[in-house]
């Protein structure tokens, strides 16, 4: 996710029930937010809400398929 104001968007994301982790990252995006939802429909709805936040300028979504080592 790219944002205009990291401080405001970090606070907003931390208040969302679907968000289980938030990371600041290097590269073309500023923030990586991990979300967990009960269905793809709920994920789609959460992403739609997040994308409408005034400080979010761009997002990219990736879905984790499997964890092989943690």
Report the total helices: 2
How many structural domains? 1
| Derived structural class | alpha+beta
**Strand residues, percent:** 15-25%
Q: For the largest sheet, list the strands in their spatial order.
A: 1-4
User: How widely separated are the two ends?
Assistant: 24 Å
What does this structure look like?
The strands form 2 sheets. The protein has a two-stranded antiparallel sheet with strand order 1-4. A two-stranded antiparallel ribbon has the order 2-3. The chain is 30% helix and 23% strand. It has a single domain, classed as 2-Layer Sandwich (Alpha-Beta Plaits). The protein is α+β, with helices and mostly antiparallel strands and 70 residues long. It is globular, with a radius of gyration of 12 Å. The protein contains 2 helices and 4 strands, in the order βαββαβ. It has helices at 6-14, 40-51; strands at 2-3, 19-24, 31-35, 56-58. The longest helix is centred in the middle third of the chain and has 12 residues, at 40-51.
In brief:
The protein is α+β, with helices and mostly antiparallel strands and 70 residues long. Helix content is 30%, strand content 23%. Strands 1-4 form a two-stranded antiparallel ribbon. A two-stranded antiparallel ribbon has the order 2-3.
Which SSEs are present, and which pair or pack?
Layout: E1 2-3, H1 6-14, E2 19-24, E3 31-35, H2 40-51, E4 56-58
Antiparallel strand pairs: 1-4, 2-3
